[in-house]
Amino acid sequence: MLPFDFDYYRPDTLQEAVGLLQYLEQEGKRPFIFSGGTELITLGRIDLATTEAVIDIKNIADCGVMQGSGDHLFLGSTLSLTTIEEANLFPLLTRIASGVADHTARRKITLGGNICARIFYRETVLPFLLADSQVLLIGPNGKKIVLINEIFNGELVLEPGEFLIQIATENRFIRAPFFSVKRRQQWDTGYPLITIAALKMDQQIRVGISGLCPFPFRSREVESALNNQGQSKEVRVEGALAVLPQPILDDVEGSSEYRLFVLRNLLFDMLAALDRG
């Protein structure tokens, strides 16, 4: 049970959801967009999240899309991670999603819920950052399509009243060689220490990392160092470590020094795997 009361709404259309969101915000109720509910339940029980109104968007058909059309794969924000994992339409995303929490939790956690979470890992965003995916949003001014790399800065930066409908990814990225590893210091389903994801496109490696900093990221500076083919692997890895975003996390999951040690080894493993591709 949650230690607070809230009004619950379950709209059937995007327009109804947008209208509700505007109305509730005007009423000062700080509405919570709800597609799986795991984060609200988890954080609400320990007084780290509260709301006076929930808008459950699982009934909206556009948010549950999972289909290929033309040169793109379209994935809706309310798809559960288990559904994505079982369909396996985007292998790198499947690998990342299958490592989030445990199987029972993944049946509830949704793609949009993970990407827009307050918990900072948000690792399912990594494949989309690497694939230059496009996001379909809706808000008071209607729908818009934006490159995810243009609006993701540690978190999905949305305008007031906007929410995520779908993510579109080109097939050429989906078919690209990839590398992905998650390292945990504790049990198999504990919080990750480091998650690394990489794609190789046009002989260039793209890298995304979660768990190192208090936000997931893709860094062009890190990629530039790793793709410097004129240098040894040691120089490339050390060059990448020298330009990492800051701060590096130092918490109960692992010290900053240990995180960097783990990342250094993962980068060598990644180069060994993708330099051959």
Q: How would you summarize what this structure contains?
A:
With 277 residues, the chain is of the alpha+beta class.
First and last CA, distance: 50 Å
**In the CATH hierarchy, what is the architecture of the largest domain at level 2?**
2-Layer Sandwich
| Residue windows where pLDDT falls under 50 for at least 5 positions | 43-48
Shape: globular
Q: What's the CATH topology name of the largest domain? A: Uridine Diphospho-n-acetylenolpyruvylglucosamine Reductase, domain 3
Number of helices: 12
| Mean pLDDT metric | 90
Integer count of domains? 3
Strand content: 15-25%
* Rg, alpha carbons: 19 Å
CATH top level of the largest domain is: Alpha Beta
For the structure shown, list the relevant keywords:
277 residues, alpha+beta, Uridine Diphospho-n-acetylenolpyruvylglucosamine Reductase, domain 2, Uridine Diphospho-n-acetylenolpyruvylglucosamine Reductase, domain 3, Enolase-like, domain 1, 3 domains, 5-stranded antiparallel sheet, 4-stranded antiparallel sheet, globular
Please explain how this structure is put together:
With 277 residues, this protein is an alpha+beta fold. It folds into 3 domains: 7-56, Uridine Diphospho-n-acetylenolpyruvylglucosamine Reductase, domain 2 (2-Layer Sandwich), CATH 3.30.43; 61-173, Uridine Diphospho-n-acetylenolpyruvylglucosamine Reductase, domain 3 (2-Layer Sandwich); 177-274, CO dehydrogenase flavoprotein, C-terminal domain (Enolase-like, domain 1), CATH 3.30.390.50. Helices cover 34% and strands 22% of the residues. The protein has helices at residues 14-26, 38-44, 81-87, 91-97, 103-106, 111-115, 125-130, 148-151, 171-174, 220-226, 233-242, 256-274, and strands at residues 7-9, 32-34, 53-56, 66-69, 72-76, 134-139, 142-147, 163-170, 178-183, 194-201, 204-210, 217-218. A 5-stranded antiparallel β-sheet has the order 4-5-8-6-7. Helix 3 packs across helix 4, helix 10 (220-226) packs antiparallel against helix 11 (233-242) and helix 11 (233-242) crosses helix 12. The longest helix is centred in the last third of the chain and has 19 residues, at 256-274. The chain is globular and about 60 Å long. Mean pLDDT is 90; it is low at 43-48.
